[in-house]
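Review form for a predicted model. The reviewer records the input and the model, then writes brief findings.
Reviewer: anonymous (R2)
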Amino acid sequence: MFFHRNCPLVGPMRQGEALGWWDRLCRGLLSVGALLFLTPLVLQLTPLRWVVTPSLPLGFYWETQEPIVRGAYVHFCLAEPIAAFGFAQGYLRSGICPGLYAELLKVVAAVAGDVVELNEGVVINGHLIPHAPRYATDSQGRPQQVWIATHRFVVPPGQVFVLSTFHLRSWDSRYFGCVPVQAIRGTARPLWVWP
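Model under review:
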């Protein structure tokens, strides 16, 4: 016979027959492969998000559809030219947004009508935001591209200013400007995060 006695082509194992080390290894590798394949798929199809960006605490976030107010976590797609720049610089990964760029998850710091001043730091409605410096270069020493024409502006209707104070060099509205509310795909809440 050309087949090993435990080969699935020969037939089922008889009761009491032990699995060999090769069979256990193959089943283990198949299980690990299935888990690695299915985990991102399941996370994409559920409102549960695993966040590993340095801009926010590492952990699980639950997608919601709450009002977009100051302090809300929002996930959104950037305009394609800005996302392409972020991808080329290594700020973004590939994802499900137009151009196959990743969504961003940030905190809304200012809403329509709020006054934002950008100098060495961020001032919103006259209050300096701690842990939000603005750098001329990124962490690799490359000049920081800025899409904001003015250093003092009022957030326009239908837009929000997003910011992360968790990581000093977060790539957010300090550099790419306000985010249109139409680009926001939803809100999120931290479910289980590590500081």
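Findings: Helices lie at 21-45, 80-89, 173-176.
Further findings: The first helix runs from residue 21 to 45.
Recommendation: see findings above.
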